[in-house]
Amino acid sequence: MDIGKIISTISDLPVVQRAEIASHIFLSLNAPDQAVEQVWMDEVERRAREMDSGDVELVPEDQAMQRLKSITEKQ
Questions:
Q1: CA 29 to chain centre
Q2: Which residues contact residue 44 at a Cβ distance below 8 angstroms, ignoring those fewer than 6 apart?
Q3: Is the dihedral of CA 40, 42, 44, 47 positive or negative?
Q4: What string of H, E and C letters represents the secondary structure of the chain?
Q5: Angstrom distance (rounded) from CA 67 to CA 1
Q6: pTM above 0.85, yes or no
């Protein structure tokens, strides 16, 4: 089947089915790099260990956002 026929066939589908196809195509084009995924998993595990051990100070979101706003306003 040529690309024109594929597009025509997809265009005739209900929007929910077109969205599902679009999502599948998008995900296939943006497959995660396994090395990058491993680096992120290592980072998540490191941060979880820091929280569990009490090595880091956890702050409420509103307080963290206020700190960030304060820093960015100084720049």
A1: 14
A2: none
A3: negative
A4: CCHHHHHHHHHCCCHHHHHHHHHHHHHHHCCCCHHHHHHHHHHHHHHHHHHHHCCCCCCCHHHHHHHHHHHHHHC
A5: 57
A6: no
At 3-59, the pLDDT tens digits run 999 999 999 999 999 999 999 999 888 777 889 889 999 999 999 999 999 999 899
Alpha-carbon distances, residue 3 vs 8, 9, 10, 21, 27 (angstroms): 8, 10, 10, 15, 19
Token pair belonging to 62:
């509103």
Whether 58 contacts 47, CB under 8 Å: no
